[in-house]
Structure formats: C-alpha cells, structure tokens
Design goal:
The chain folds into two domains: 10-182, Beta Polymerase, domain 2, CATH 3.30.460; 221-275, no CATH class. It contains eight helices and five strands, in the order H-E-H-H-E-H-E-E-E-H-H-H-H. The protein has helices at residues 10-45, 60-69, 79-86, 100-111, 162-177, 184-237, 241-251, 262-275; strands spanning 52-57, 91-97, 117-123, 136-146, 149-161.
Length: 281
C-alpha cells in the first residue's frame, strides 16, 4: 500500500511514537558523547577535529517514505517492525569538521570506541555520489536502556567538512523544492559546485599543513634558542664573561628577534645588555 494513499491510524501513530522513542534517546546520548570528544580534545590539545554536532530522528512522514523506498509494505502485516529491519538511518547524527584530515581522525576515534560498534562504513569522499555528494557514513550499533529494557539501536553518523555540509544542505533544500526532480542543468551546476567545494577542502588542507610545518619549525627554533641561551647564561653565572660574550655573538650576533617568545626575549635582553658591555680579551 503506497504512503500516498495510506493514512496511519491513531493506533499506528501511537506505535510509531513508541517505536521512535529509543532512537531519540540514542541521539541524545550520542550527542553528549560526541561533544565529550570535542571538549576533551580542546582541553588536551587546544584543538578539536569536531566543529559541531547535530542530530535528528526521522519524522513519521520521512520514515514512511524511506520505508516504502526500501520495499516495506506500509500498512500491511508487521510493517512497523519491518521498518527497523530495512531502514538504518532512523536515527542520524552529523559531525562537521574544518578539514579533510579531521574527518579521518574522527572516523578513527569512533572506530576505536568501546561503548558502541561501527558495523558499516560508506566512504563518499573516495567515491562520491553521482550528484557530487561527499561524506563518510558510519552505521553504529548502540546499546541503550529505554526504561528497564535494553535495546540495540542502529544510528547513522555522517562526517562532513563545513564546505561539504554547506553544499549538501543547499542541495537537499533544492531537491525538496523540486520534489526530487531537479532540472538537468541544475544537477550539473550542483555537481560542479560540489567539485569546487572539494577543491576548497584540498586547498585548505594544504594551507593547514604549511601552517603546521611553520609552527613545528618555530617550535624547534625556540627549543634550540632556549638551549643556546641557557648555555650562555650558565657561563655568565660562572663569571666566564668572555666565553659567554663570544658564544652570544656567535649564536645570535645583532640580527635576531625573540618578540614571539616572552621568555626568550627576557633572557636575551638581560644577556645582551650585560654581555656586550663586557670586554672580550
């Protein structure tokens, strides 16, 4: 029976409401856990691969449409129970990241969790949909206790960058507006836009690598300069002023700037002001 003609009875609506409840609980619990990953990473590394998390349980209307697409005979037999066997994204979460590398990091974190099990991974980044859609979809089996009853619920977690999410959100709204019948020209424009968004992700990933390389080089430089200043300071404390002044000139000369590091700047200013006044015999 097609959902275009079938109208759920009051009893069916009550059953669907009870059916959806554990899924809503799963969304609520997993959102807390995903946000826990975000804030835990921020505390540890001052950076989180997770930008934000959103979630939803399919509405009754959306659920029935999806069930019919999956071949469920809506309105016949144990059709509500059949929905659970055929529809895996009744509960859905979306994790949005800044960078492509963040998606892989979040994917690894989720696969290593012990409080739920990843049962399926579909990589639409490696193999985009014909529309241009890109994302990584994880189907997880999550045990939840609804009342006194334990129930294992399937939930789909989508991993997207911000640009992927921007494209997908707009594409979804356009498909809804055109009742899933997008004009051919618009489909092609959307596909090109998806490719452009992915190129932006790749460019941002390259910028990030360059920034990280620069930061790592600066960190190595800071550590090296700290060692040099400590060596000079040790000589200064021992009153070996000549050797300290020689090393200072050898290591730094007059063309250096430690303004980026207050600690180095303080030590440097102290040594500079004192050592350069000491004659080197």
């Amino acid at each position: 029976m097609s959902i275009t003609t079938y109208k759920p009875s009051r009893g069916d609506l009550e059953r669907l409401s009870k059916f959806r409840a554990p899924y809503q609980q799963t969304i609520d619990e997993l959102k807390v856990k995903l946000k826990g990953i975000k804030y835990g990473c921020l505390e540890q590394d001052c950076y989180s691969p997770i930008e934000f998390v959103v979630g939803r349980v399919k509405t009754v209307e959306s659920l029935l449409k999806k069930a019919e697409k999956k071949g469920v005979q809506v309105g016949n037999g144990n059709w509500i129970e059949d929905i659970e066997q055929h529809v895996y994204d009744i509960a859905g979460l979306r994790v949005v990241t800044r960078y492509l590398e963040d998606i892989r990091e979040v994917q690894q974190i989720l696969c290593e969790r012990e409080d739920f099990q990843v049962v399926e991974i579909t990589d639409y980044i490696e193999t985009p949909k014909e529309s241009g859609y890109r994302s990584v979809h994880l189907v997880v089996r999550y045990p939840t206790y609804h009342g006194s009853q334990k129930k294992e619920v399937l939930c789909e977690i989508q991993l997207r960058t911000m640009s992927m999410n921007f494209w997908a959100t707009n594409e979804h709204e356009l498909r809804y507006k055109y009742d899933e019948k997008l004009p051919v020209e618009m489909k092609e424009q959307l596909r090109r836009a998806a490719d452009t968004a992915y190129e932006l992700d790749l460019q941002m990933a390259q910028f990030r690598r360059e920034i990280r390389t620069s930061q790592e080089m600066r960190l190595e430089d800071t550590v090296a300069n700290e060692d040099k200043l400590e060596e000079i300071f040790s000589l200064y404390v021992k009153k070996d002023f000549n050797r300290a002044a020689e090393l200072y000139q050898t290591y730094f000369g007059r063309d250096h700037d430690f303004a980026y590091n207050p600690k180095l700047q303080m030590i440097d200013e102290m040594l500079n002001s004192r050592l350069l006044k000491k004659p080197v015999s």
